[in-house]
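Table S2 (text version). Query chain:
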Amino acid sequence: MSKTLSHLDPALLAERADAIADAARELAAFGWTPATSSNFSMRIDDELAAITISGRDKGRLGRDDIMVVDMDGKAVGSDNRPSAETGLHTQVYRRFPEANVVLHTHSRTQSVCSRLFADEGRVRLEGWELQKAITGYTTHESVLDIPVFPNTQHMPELEARVDAWIDSGKPLHAYLINGHGIYTWGRDMAETRRHLEALEFLLGCELDLRRLTP
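Corresponding structure-token output:
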């Protein structure tokens, strides 16, 4: 524990913790956070973010289940352990200054889709009206690629793959990890929830097409 929370407004941290816990309970009720999986975070300021403590039941979160990390993913003012995937959250905050919330879930639909499309390296969404739920998309006559990155327990490798996609200039609003789940983000909790719910629906539609198309 190398840093302190001395400059942080306790009321602001409590507000962030409540928002994360509320969202987590709702997403857990959908069955999207099985067996303590998934992690959620909110930016506090340019240097800090609030994030779920590793291993906690996402359907039963309270303020004590949320901790603070810096933008390198290191714990601040806590001896608790953040998720091993914390670096993927802080990467979003560093690369997308407008992003203030990151949600990562493990629904059955997301997990199956990640396996099914892993060899293609992406899920290509086009022609679906609900693509308009993603910020920046105004018509179904567009292409929304959700990359599928190989799974690894070595987070710097995964972060490098995400950086490479962003550096290539291709839009990135979410990504899947093979056999794992989805990450998405937004300017606030409402926008991020909308992205997550839309993507869950769209990935489910793609799975149904694969099942039903001869």
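Notes on Table S2: The CA atoms of residues 38 and 105 lie 5 Å apart. The two ends are 57 Å apart (CA to CA).
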